[in-house]
């Protein structure tokens, strides 16, 4: 069953398509990257287990199939790389895809060289490939772990950008290996040639597609479908044309075409974005099955302790180092940096490009062996084994452990915050966002004014530019997952509309609205909107300073040295006990001041007995209040 001739090719292709579909279903069901199921299926069907698929199963077409698959994957990733989003990204995210990528590339190459004894070019080829994380493995994690938006945006951007850049750098190093180039001048020349050819061909293809999509009648009834087919054709043509002009320039070409087309104002953009659907699923199946077919368990065993050392260094040393260096001085907490450090699985690009390179190396080794150059052929075969084995080992280990344990890691580090959506990024909205963010909550602002958007982003907040009274804008900002929605603009009509939309469309736990005109408070509340009047709140604050100056001064410190928190009683050890009995267990510097039960709020005396589900208000020093929260509600 090792080889599949023409008669067996059809059932083989059908089996691979079926595996891809089942893997995607399982991925959606268990919220685990589909790469896990694809690799497991590939190993099962490969020569090491059932022997249904082997490197000879596709005859001489395997390299072409994998090459075109890589073209589609890279084009899809590049198409979703938005330049304006990169400009708006926090400094830490920019450093993550520049400084962090360089650290990963160099450090991984050094570790592979010394741990596995690989030649420097092969070591840095592995280093270049393992820079890429990729949205296809990050997205399922972020669906399961609703981390703060700035964390998710950093991981997403890193995956998209590094997918493309890692592929291009790897191509240059691979070509240098094949041509025996080692001098810096020759490497620079090789890089310029491959990148130059790729950029020119990609730009020509992108320009042609742009013209056709914008100015040519694509048959109105089938225009969306035709747009997708044109995008697919563009990816394949750019790859093939560039590769024909200069070997291995195809990846740079499809990356260029994808970036240019994705950032142009083209019609049918949503339809082209759907390019990731069925076709991508199919090519991913081919890529991972091909990778598994190239695997030789003996080669994995030959990596031995050195292979495990590479995995440990990549996941536990290099990744944390680059994250902490990149995120220094930003708004990321220590726990968020640790989460980003331990959730960086590798996936599609390393696997697909490694497969393509390994096939090419083995074919070159076969040619050299036929010409009597056995020593050089053996060296290339060894390089192919190290390349595939190391990349596979890192992918499998990081995906299984980091993706599989991501939720547990997030819960242990306590990086899943309450989500608060604030419409209005003015002074009130930003002040509220700052107080909530200081307490560790996940705050997202929505604002229309571009200057205000930029000011809020400069403060480190996640801001969506758009009209908060638009349902689609609310949805894209995450209203469906928000616990609180706050309408804090300076326009009462907008605030009322936002509050009604949030209640009717998204059903958050609570919706709050700012009333700029105190005469509107009653009208708001009659419509079921909890309302805060700016005028009344200011008057109350001034009155507090006059009548209760000590309390007002202390309240001004909330979020810095002092804090007030309301928390639900869930700890079994506290249920059925009085305030007097739990007092000695509370941290010094805090008190229980209020208890809410069944809608009634009481100032408890020492003999008040707590019940499960009571909501108690704790007041005191900030750290003491935080510790008391964990005691009362340890979940």
UniProtKB/TrEMBL annotation:
<feature type="domain" description="RCK N-terminal">
    <location>
        <begin position="417"/>
        <end position="538"/>
    </location>
</feature>
<comment type="function">
    <text>Part of a potassium transport system.</text>
</comment>
<keyword id="KW-0813">Transport</keyword>
<dbReference type="GO" id="GO:0006813">
    <property type="term" value="P:potassium ion transport"/>
</dbReference>
<feature type="transmembrane region" description="Helical">
    <location>
        <begin position="6"/>
        <end position="23"/>
    </location>
</feature>
<dbReference type="InterPro" id="IPR003148">
    <property type="entry name" value="RCK_N"/>
</dbReference>
<dbReference type="Pfam" id="PF02080">
    <property type="entry name" value="TrkA_C"/>
</dbReference>
<feature type="transmembrane region" description="Helical">
    <location>
        <begin position="35"/>
        <end position="55"/>
    </location>
</feature>
<feature type="transmembrane region" description="Helical">
    <location>
        <begin position="279"/>
        <end position="297"/>
    </location>
</feature>
<dbReference type="InterPro" id="IPR006153">
    <property type="entry name" value="Cation/H_exchanger_TM"/>
</dbReference>
<feature type="transmembrane region" description="Helical">
    <location>
        <begin position="159"/>
        <end position="178"/>
    </location>
</feature>
<dbReference type="InterPro" id="IPR038770">
    <property type="entry name" value="Na+/solute_symporter_sf"/>
</dbReference>
<keyword id="KW-0520">NAD</keyword>
<feature type="transmembrane region" description="Helical">
    <location>
        <begin position="338"/>
        <end position="360"/>
    </location>
</feature>
<feature type="transmembrane region" description="Helical">
    <location>
        <begin position="190"/>
        <end position="213"/>
    </location>
</feature>
<keyword id="KW-0812">Transmembrane</keyword>
<feature type="transmembrane region" description="Helical">
    <location>
        <begin position="303"/>
        <end position="326"/>
    </location>
</feature>
<dbReference type="Pfam" id="PF00999">
    <property type="entry name" value="Na_H_Exchanger"/>
</dbReference>
<feature type="transmembrane region" description="Helical">
    <location>
        <begin position="61"/>
        <end position="81"/>
    </location>
</feature>
<keyword id="KW-1133">Transmembrane helix</keyword>
<keyword id="KW-0630">Potassium</keyword>
<dbReference type="InterPro" id="IPR006037">
    <property type="entry name" value="RCK_C"/>
</dbReference>
<dbReference type="InterPro" id="IPR006036">
    <property type="entry name" value="K_uptake_TrkA"/>
</dbReference>
<keyword id="KW-0050">Antiport</keyword>
<keyword id="KW-0472">Membrane</keyword>
<keyword id="KW-0633">Potassium transport</keyword>
<keyword id="KW-0406">Ion transport</keyword>
<keyword id="KW-1003">Cell membrane</keyword>
<protein>
    <submittedName>
        <fullName>Cation:proton antiporter</fullName>
    </submittedName>
</protein>
<dbReference type="InterPro" id="IPR036721">
    <property type="entry name" value="RCK_C_sf"/>
</dbReference>
<feature type="transmembrane region" description="Helical">
    <location>
        <begin position="380"/>
        <end position="401"/>
    </location>
</feature>
<dbReference type="Pfam" id="PF02254">
    <property type="entry name" value="TrkA_N"/>
</dbReference>
<feature type="transmembrane region" description="Helical">
    <location>
        <begin position="93"/>
        <end position="116"/>
    </location>
</feature>
<feature type="domain" description="RCK C-terminal">
    <location>
        <begin position="552"/>
        <end position="634"/>
    </location>
</feature>
<dbReference type="GO" id="GO:0015297">
    <property type="term" value="F:antiporter activity"/>
</dbReference>
<dbReference type="InterPro" id="IPR036291">
    <property type="entry name" value="NAD(P)-bd_dom_sf"/>
</dbReference>
<feature type="transmembrane region" description="Helical">
    <location>
        <begin position="122"/>
        <end position="147"/>
    </location>
</feature>
<dbReference type="GO" id="GO:0005886">
    <property type="term" value="C:plasma membrane"/>
</dbReference>
């Amino acid at each position: 069953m090792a080889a599949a001739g023409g008669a067996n090719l059809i059932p083989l292709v059908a089996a691979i398509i079926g595996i891809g579909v089942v893997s995607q279903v399982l991925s959606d069901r268990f919220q685990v990257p589909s790469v896990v199921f694809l690799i497991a299926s590939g190993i099962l069907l490969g020569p090491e287990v059932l022997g249904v698929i082997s490197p000879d199963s596709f005859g001489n077409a395997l390299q072409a199939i994998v090459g075109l698959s890589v073209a589609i994957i890279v084009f899809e990733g590049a198409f979703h790389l938005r330049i304006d989003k990169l400009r708006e990204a926090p400094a830490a995210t920019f450093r993550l895809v520049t400084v962090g990528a360089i650290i990963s590339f160099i450090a991984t190459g050094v570790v592979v060289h010394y741990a596995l004894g690989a030649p420097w070019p092969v070591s840095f080829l592995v280093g270049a490939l393992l820079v890429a994380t990729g949205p296809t493995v990050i997205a399922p994690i972020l669906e399961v772990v609703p981390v703060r938006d700035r964390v998710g945006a950093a991981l997403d951007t890193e995956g998209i950008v590094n997918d493309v850049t890692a592929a291009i750098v790897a191509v240059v190093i691979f070509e240098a290996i094949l041509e025996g180039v080692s001098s810096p001048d020759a490497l620079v020349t090789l890089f310029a040639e491959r990148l130059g050819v790729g950029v020119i061909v990609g730009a020509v293809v992108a320009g042609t597609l742009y013209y056709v999509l914008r100015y040519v009648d694509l048959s109105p009834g089938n225009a969306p479908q035709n747009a997708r087919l044109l995008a697919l054709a563009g990816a394949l043509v750019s790859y093939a044309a560039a590769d024909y002009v200069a070997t291995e320039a195809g990846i740079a070409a499809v990356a260029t075409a994808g970036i240019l087309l994705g950032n142009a104002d083209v019609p049918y953009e949503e339809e082209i974005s759907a390019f990731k659907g069925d076709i991508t699923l199919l090519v991913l199946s081919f890529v991972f099955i091909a990778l598994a077919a190239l695997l030789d368990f003996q080669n994995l065993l030959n990596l031995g302790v050195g292979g495990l050392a590479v995995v440990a260094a990549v996941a536990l040393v290099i990744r944390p180092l680059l994250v902490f260096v990149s995120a220094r001085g930003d708004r990321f907490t220590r726990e968020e940096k640790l989460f980003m450090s331990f959730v960086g699985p590798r996936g599609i690009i390393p696997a697909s490009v490694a497969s393509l390179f390994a096939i090419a190396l083995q074919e070159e080794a076969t040619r050299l062996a036929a010409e009597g150059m056995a020593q050089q052929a053996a060296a290339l075969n060894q390089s192919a084994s190290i390349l595939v084995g190391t990349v596979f080992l890192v992918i499998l280990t990081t995906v299984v452990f980091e993706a599989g344990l991501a939720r547990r890691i997030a819960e242990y580090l306590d990086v899943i915050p309450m989500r608060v959506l604030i419409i209005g990024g003015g002074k009130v909205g930003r002040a509220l966002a700052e107080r909530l963010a200081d307490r560790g909550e996940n705050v997202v602002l929505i604002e229309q004014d571009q200057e205000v958007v930029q000011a809020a982003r400069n403060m480190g907040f996640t801001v969506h530019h758009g009209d908060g009274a638009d349902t689609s804008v609310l949805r894209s900002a995450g209203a469906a997952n928000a616990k609180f929605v706050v309408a804090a603009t300076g326009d009462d009509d907008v605030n009322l509309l936002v509050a009604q939309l949030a209640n009717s469309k998204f059903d958050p736990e609570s919706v709050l609205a700012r009333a700029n005109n105190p005469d509107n408070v009653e009208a708001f509340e009659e419509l079921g909107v909890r309302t805060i009047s700016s005028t009344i709140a200011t008057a109350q604050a001034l009155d507090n300073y006059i009548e209760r100056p000590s309390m007002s001064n202390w309240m001004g410190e909330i979020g810095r040295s002092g804090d007030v928190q309301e928390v639900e009683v869930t700890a079994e050890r506290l249920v059925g006990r009085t305030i007097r009995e739990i007092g000695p267990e509370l941290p010094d510097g805090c008190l229980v001041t209020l208890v809410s039960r069944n809608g009634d709020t009481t100032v408890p005396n020492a003999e008040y007995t707590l019940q499960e589900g009571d909501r108690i208000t704790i007041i005191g020093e900030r750290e003491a209040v935080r510790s008391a929260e964990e005691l009362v509600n340890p979940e």
